Amino acid sequence: MDLQQRINAFVKLGEFLSQFSNEGVKKKEGIANNDLFYEGFLHQINLAHEHNGWFTKENILFSLNQWFNALIKSNLTTWLEKYNFNIVQSKKVAVIMAGNIPLVGFHDFISVLISGHDVVVKQSSNDKHLLPYLAKYLEILEPDFRGKIEFTNDRLNGFDAVIATGSNNTARYFEHYFKGKPSIIRKNRNSVAILTGKETHSELQLLSEDIFRYYGLGCRNVSKLFVPRNYNFQAFFEAMYHWNPIINLAKYANNYDYNKAVYLMSEFDMLENGFLMIKEDKSYSSPIATVFYEYYDDINQLHQKLETDKEQIQCVVANGVIKSEVPFGKTQQPQLWDYADNVDTIAFLLKI
Residue 323 needs a FRET pair 20 to 30 A away by CA distance; which of 48, 129, 131, 209 works? Predict the structure, then answer.
């Protein structure tokens, strides 16, 4: 199976996913193997939601829509054109996936297969329904994928390299367990936004998507704001307000109530609007329903701080403030070439 065959298979997978989006779930004509897989995938979406209350259908469909947008031929070609795939000798790559948002490990899965390697996947119990079904669809699309995809709940053995994503605590375990193997090991990261006070209402509304999508559980979700001294949060709260229905999810409301009680009993200063709290804090990782903020006095000093803390940061959201910034509202819409932790996964896979 050559690279073009692999690309063509993922393009067809994207076409299949195009039937499932927030704009509507509708069966289309001309989708490969649709009669075999369409209804079954609807069932998997329902199972994923029933198994994990954070995986609402809205958020599952949002994730699927992002992958449909990513897996178009021009994107795949742009992503892969700078690499030399002729040097690849097929190896077995273990991928240990997180389970914080739907299909969070899908990019690693695609990267291993598109590079010509075999993949053995160890999924999180929180996100175990969608990917195996899509893998089976791939095998029907392109029979040469058969035997190259394995899922396991057992201890990993017989692999040549590993990509593992987890918390800072599990990363220490991964580093010990996988020493001697080529590896990418990802730890906790969070995303931040830099506000200047000049943002429009529209920009702040877009920022709300970066904060609330997936209930803030992703590493690309904004969990902290950097704001100028004496920043007035009124415009910020007004722009957040259209997300107020989020409090109707019991799991989110329970976290909101718990964290609010903790802050009040601890006599921490915080501002809240009934579904979001903001609290001054130097940490990057904020609890659910909370966004931390920190004041800055000099933008150049802030640049230096972000550079110093870059190992803790996934994305920086801003408008014309920093070179590597992500536009407001775009953190959960990465391109295929926007690698987690800025580690080029394909380059890693081509040299193992």
Answer: 209
Looking at the fold, whether 240 and 288 belong to one and the same domain comes out as yes
- Residues 307 and 316 sit within 8 Å (Cβ to Cβ): no
Identify whether residues 154 and 24 lie together within a single domain: yes
Claim: this prediction has a pTM higher than 0.70: yes
172-209 residues labelled b (16+ CB within 10 A) or e (exposed): eebeebbeeeebbbbbbbbbbbbbeeebeeebbbbbbb
CATH number, residue 212:
3.40.309.10
Question: Alpha-carbon Rg of the chain, whole angstroms?
Answer: 21
| C-alpha to C-alpha distance for 262 and 277, rounded to whole angstroms | 12
DSSP per-residue codes, 264-316: HHTT--EEE-SS-EEEE-S-S-PPTTEEEEEEES-HHHHHHHHHHTGGGEEEE
The per-residue pLDDT string of the chain (352 residues; one tens digit each, 9 = 90 and over) reads: 899 999 999 999 999 999 999 999 999 999 999 999 999 999 999 999 999 999 999 999 999 999 999 999 999 999 999 999 988 899 999 999 999 999 999 999 999 999 999 999 999 999 999 999 999 999 999 999 999 999 999 999 999 999 999 999 999 899 998 998 999 999 999 999 999 999 999 999 999 999 999 999 999 999 999 999 999 999 999 999 999 999 999 999 999 999 999 999 999 999 999 999 999 999 999 999 999 999 999 999 999 999 999 999 999 999 999 999 999 999 999 999 999 999 999 999 999 9
* Relative orientation angle of helices 3-17 and 73-80, to the nearest 10 degrees: 140
Closest CA to 231 of 202, 190, 207, 198: 198
Asked whether residue 249 falls in the same domain as residue 233, the answer is yes
**Domain edge (last residue) among 152, 187, 222:** 187
Are 63 and 103 a contacting pair, CB within 8 Å?
A: yes
In this structure, the answer to whether residues 243 and 147 fall within a common structural domain is no
Residues 76, 178: one domain?
Answer: yes
Could you list the residue range(s) of the whole structural domain that residue 160 is in? 3-187
- Domain contains 306: yes
Q: Which phi and psi (to 5°) does residue 259 adopt?
A: -65, -35
